[in-house]
Predict the 3D structure of the following.
Amino acid sequence: MRDVVRVVLADDHALVLEGLRSLLGGQKGIRVVATATDGERLLDAVERFRPDVAVVDIRMPYMDGLTCLQRIREKHTGTKVLILTAYDDGQTLQSVMAARADGLVLKTDPPERTVNAIRQAADGQLVFPAAARRWLYDGRDAEPAALSEREIEVLSLVAEGMGNAEVALRLHISENTVKFHLRNIYRRLDVSNRTEASRKFLERYT
């Protein structure tokens, strides 16, 4: 991860925007370079500052967050986009996944989770909250590419943004075992890294 993660924040609610800016202002290695209250101002800020991460409210005036995401993807491939929302329902998750966001941040999440999500996105990880992962499993018994039950457990945690050490701790296995499972997962899903594997896993259910 880079030494300083440069962030643009976009939300049409001044209280949310100020709260995020205040939260991130006290974090080492994160710098808020601009804020925006609507979609058009967000795109202007991204064009001007070329941030590492844009945290974007899904509902904003003039241009919604998902439309902004597509515009950013077209011109600024180096900027990761986290969609910010108060909703964790299936329809919202499907929309965010279809737009190929780098992650979903819930306004109801603890502050430290939002901070971690920004760091993880900047590091190239896909970041989706536990509530989103639970919805993905709800009522669905199909498994992607015939992964084993343990491989699905590993990949679901990776898709949440966990590193190998965190996955090992959660599942009470060694890091080497996690790496072994990931190698098998990459082979079975025909991908080359954890980001591609996470995206394919999540898209399998949308």
